[in-house]
Design a protein that fits this description.
Blueprint: H1 2-15, H2 17-36, H3 39-44, H4 51-69, H5 71-83, H6 88-112, E1 126-129, E2 132-135, H7 139-156, H8 171-207, H9 213-223, H10 230-239, E3 245-248, E4 251-254, H11 256-267, H12 272-282, H13 286-307, H14 313-330, H15 334-341, H16 345-357, H17 360-364, H18 376-384, H19 391-415, H20 431-434, H21 438-448, E5 455-460, E6 464-469, E7 487-492, E8 495-499, H22 504-516
Antiparallel strand pairs: 1-2, 3-4, 5-6, 6-8, 7-8
Length: 519
Amino acid sequence: MKSNFKNEIQTFGRSLLLPIAVLAPVGMVMGVSSALGQSYMVEKLPFLGADFFVTLFKSLRIVSSVIFANIPLLFAMGVAYGMSKKEKGISVFASVIAYLTLLISMNVNLQLTGNLTTESPALVGQGMVLGIHTLKIEALGGIIAGLIAAWTTDRFHRLELPLAFAFFSGKKSVAIISIALTVPVGMLLPFVWNMFTSAMISASSVFMAEGIGPGIYWTLNRLLIPFGLHHVFSSAVRFTEAGGTYLIDGSTYVGILPAMNHILFDLGPSHPAWQEHMPTLSAYLAPGQMLTTLFRIPAIGLAMYHTAYAKNKTLAKGLILTIVLTAFLGNVTEPLEFSFLFIAPKLFIVYAVLCGLLTIPMYYLEVSMGYIRGTVFDFGIFGLMYENTQWVSLVALGIVNFIVFYMFFRWAIVKFNIATPGREKDAGDNTLLLNKEYGKIADIVVAALGGKDNIKRVENCVTRLRIDVKDTKVMNMEQFKTAGSTGTFIPSSNHVHVVFGPHVEFVRNAIDDNLAGVQ
């Protein structure tokens, strides 16, 4: 039971990535259009003031803003899709219905209890959502609806009803039952919301503590990566009271991301809220991650290359360069982190603590940048194209981080003889991955897992396969290296993770084909 609970939590964390994956590129579009429309940009580049460009940038902001205005709905669909094991399409459909039901049920509660207010509703956490005056519980509402829809789908998608009601059997019953289950949840939620809010506010006093808060946040974020729970933790800070509550121009914004979206895309660098809030918000979003993706990961990679055995340097160079660029360009850090996590767990703990400690100065340097992912593209758009971002301070702090991480990892690898890439007796080979020979990789992985008969279920997240097997004893863990895996571990009974980095989805597709007998 404990093992199943862990697996479900990991699956839940993975399901949160789907809406986040949508927000990141749309945020870039909004960032570019908002930055190029700022008055200081028009002064520098007068042609941006032409009617064509003004209309273009305004249109892009309007179109992309609909995504940010409906973040809870995205979470409802994403969680339903990720958590349901059967009939995912029905689950997504039911999640939308459940979310609408949740909104109107909370509206009914507020009316019956006399708590519905039209005067300054934002001050009491109320507002209009999809045309319904309701309690604004933001992304949490979508998550609740998604969980209800996923559970209902798996439980009732084959429900058989008496002949008189046979039309409503099976898949058609899922949406109807989701409504029935969501109504009492929506009626009850306003009563428990105050308690939940108080708990999140208490948590925010730790995570959002002035100065040291970002250090605590990023240390925990790194430590949760092996368990796949960092997405859950990040989402709590981004979208709930755990990330603080911000009153800006009379409106209340819950969590760091809604507040940043408003300041970044609606108000701009000249508004007083930029100076007041952006240094705090930034430390928990892209700039905090940039220290890892743009400076720490390259430093660790360089230390690994310099400490690799001479005979392995050529092979190690290709592997290390690939996983460093994966972080630099795509914000996927797990391949490099997993390359030393399981062979030197104490080193990983120190790494996580260092990540936290060396993020703290960012707050005092008043770095004020968006957005979520922390790639070099975020730096170019939200650092260089906006005013008052203090990007020079970020680079200066990044250089300090690079030096510290390089020197520490080079010393630790040699001192403790850690078998990082290029120092193994039998180094892994990523040739198949580089050549995109996913069919051959699938053959190796299936064989390493003990064959088709030993495999119960195959899923994937951003960087790793997550596989349920019947018996872990028949697996060949070393064989995964020949497929290009940078790390393999068993987090719970009969469940194995195999790390392939950004190639993982294509590897998973090839494995699905292999198991289905498709050549």
